[in-house]
Amino acid sequence: MGFPVRGAGLGLRRGLLPELANMDEHAVDFMELAPENWIRIGGRFGRQFRRIAEKFPLVCHGLSLSIGSPAPLDTGLLNDVKAFLDTHGVLAYTEHLSYCSDDKGQLYDLMPIPFTSEAVSYVAKRIIEVQDVLERRIGIEHVSYYAAPGQELSELEFINGVLREADCDLLLDVNNIYVNSINFAYDPFEFLAGIDAKRTVYVHIAGHYEEAPDLRVDTHASKVAEPVWDLLKEAYARYGVMPTLLERDFNFPPLGELLGEVERIRSMQQTADEHAKVGA
Question: Residue 169: which H helix or E strand, with range?
Fold first, then answer.
């Protein structure tokens, strides 16, 4: 499949906005934002956002779709998202393969969907509905999780089943693979080899917290760990260079440090491209 963006990207976060608004247009190749955080935002923040939207290609990664929820899809939110994507020329829209609400309201966390055949069909049907409303394909991100209630399928079987039945794209997150591999004691490289990566629209890489030798917490609040960089290198070697975005949500370092990690992504992409040409 063709990619909507290229190169190395960075997440647009409110805490970084003043620096990002004045960042050189060659510092990153694209930027990602959660549309819920910017729909109908005006004033100073709105002006800063519009400057960024005019300088950088944009992709959106949603927070509130709650694709696995027992509650009906929020059509009001979907219509707002569609208008936002169209207005700002957003090149890709992705969401989480999880749920964050029930029939009582928001749960304020990304909850795991049971790995069952019934859940595959339920989620796939809802993804198809979302794509119909938005009039575009969407990408689904496999999430980090800490419990697997009612599990009947493996994580890989569940993810690949949803992708196949919904015929949607994948947001490949190498940090989530690594975090889950520690927490559930599996080989992250085998998982990477088994996922339906030909559907990848772009890649996430992020930092996490080491709570214990056998427990990692997906925080997006620290620099990327070396084993996660190794997994990204393997992803490029196995599937070719893919657009890759650095996520950082909290505990922001100076912008130069974040851009250093973005440059590391670019360097890895260049090296992988060179190796591919030599092997061709």
Answer: strand 169-173
Range of the domain at 99: 8-279
6-20, 103-117, 148-162: least confidently modelled range? 103-117
- Given phi > 0 = left and psi -120 to 50 = alpha, else beta, which region is 260? alpha
Burial of 97 (0-12, 13-18, 19+ CB in 10 A): buried
Question: Is 76 part of any domain?
Answer: yes
Q: What's the pLDDT band for 58 if we cut at 50, 70, 90?
A: very high
Which among 174, 180, 176 is positioned nearest to 236, based on CA atoms?
174
- On whether the pTM is more than 0.90, the answer is yes
User: Which of helix, strand or coil describes residue 212?
Assistant: strand
Q: Is residue 3 part of a domain?
A: no
The tokens for 57 are: 């290609």
Residue 66: CATH number of its domain = 3.20.20.150
Check residue 151 and give its pLDDT. 92
- The count of domains in the chain is 1
> Does 165 map to a domain?
yes
- Residue at 2 is within a domain: no
Residue 268: pLDDT above 80? yes
- Bridging pattern class, strands 200-206 and 105-111: unpaired
Nearest to 59 by CA among 11, 127, 126: 11
143: helix, strand or coil: coil
pLDDT above 70 (res 209): yes
pLDDT of 207 strictly over 70 = yes
